[in-house]
Write a structure and sequence with these properties.
Strand order of the largest sheet: 7-9-10-11-8-12-13
Shape: elongated
Largest sheet: 7 strands, mixed
Number of helices: 23
CATH superfamily of the largest domain: P-loop containing nucleotide triphosphate hydrolases
Strand content: 5-15%
Helix content: 40-55%
CATH architecture of the largest domain: 3-Layer(aba) Sandwich
Radius of gyration: 28 Å
Structural class: alpha/beta
CATH topology of the largest domain: Rossmann fold
CATH class of the largest domain: Alpha Beta
Distance between the termini: 60 Å
Length: 497
Amino acid sequence: MQDLHDLKLILERKEPLVVIETYEESRALELLTRLAIERGDALQQWTVSDGLRRLGFGEDVAVTETESPDKALRAVKLREESGLFVFCDLHPFLDQALIVRLIKDIVFQHEGFGKTIVLLSHQVALPEDLQRYAVRFRLTLPGEEQLLSLVREEARHFSRTTGQKVKTDNTTLQQIVRNLRGVTYADARRLIRGAIVDDGAITQDDLGPVTKAKMALLDRDGAIHFEYDTARFMDVAGLDVMKQWLDKRRDAFFGDDPRMRPRGVMLFGVQGSGKSLAAKAVAGSWGVPLLRLDMGNMYNKYIGETERNLREALEMAETMSPCVVWMDEIEKGLGQDGSDTGVSQRLLGTLLTWLAEHKSSVFTVMTANNIHALPPELVRKGRLDELFFVDLPRVDVREAIIRLHLAKRQIADDTIDVAAVATASDGFSGAELEQVIVSACHRRGRSMQAAETRLVTTDDLIDEVQRTCPLSVTMAEAVQDLRDWAVGRAVLADSAH
């Protein structure tokens, strides 16, 4: 087992402080127990409920009532024998000066006594003065081979306990294994068991619930999460140049040659012009999961933690491949304002390295409103495959957008002079056109129910257009500045006006 080998190497390097972040506490303790037996080390475990207790073999500590973390650490400090001391869920106490000082004291004793502190929890944010002494270890997630073994193991267990053989087919089996990528061994086992015990079979009906449960598990980390609301390109009006570009690269994305695989695109332009919808449509049209990377959730007060959050999020994306990663308003996370003490620069370096080196089927879609705030290293070609400028929609695209939003509200477009509304709304974004329709419905005093919205007329819509001052007017200089910048630097996502 790779985890056992890697953890063994860490202990053999005589690291005084080891941090293991995982939800699989029992699995981590099992590995540590096996290594302690193999090495002949005493192994002690601390929890706030039980204090410091012997785990596996070795002598119990002489001190009683060690539920308090300071008393437990003092007991370890006073011990003159070597050993592994696993502190489970010590993270809430790591902001206390006494606790930090005691850990440092034990770390400084390592050369003399060979005592190793292991901090085990789902998340451990070390204070700066402990980080230099610590090495982090992460349990690997199961691959498809391991997941398939778990399915077979749970199927055998079900057969032994019920006398029934689990029914499935190879196609469904392969699909459910792919859907389970990215979760821990324990979570995968629980999801597999849930799929089997329901009806004694693994069928297509299990794929949806398993995927939904998996998404819920992965969402708890906060930095990267699934977007349930994807779209199809038929739901996106215009952007024909970008659509053609993506269509030509679809087969390469799913191909086996990483050298030909597209890496991603940058979409920038006027707010409300459909950048986010286009990002969702890539995933929906290619039939792959859409993961949204929240740049704001990655920032952490501890040095190095923010970059680690980004690395973990990108690792999760690779585990979930093939998939689309959507980084919305990326300038807010990587903007160059000189006020973040270099954090954005370190984030940028981590992201650029990943973009250049990753081999997995992960397609990145970055969206930005303020292209000027982005570092030039990210914008230039080579990091991403193409830079698309999403301009305000031309008149025929506005017609298509209006028809889409009318259809969503079950308003018959043959009762509306769509061409007249589209002509009157020159300079409007897609989001502004939608709001025009919504406002017209509200002005009529109607709900969104179909039977009550049919009374909305062309005059209502044109009246709302005339009442609205679009962004292209209120921020005319900024919009024109974006257009000027895009000339010769970016590809128009839609055909020329």
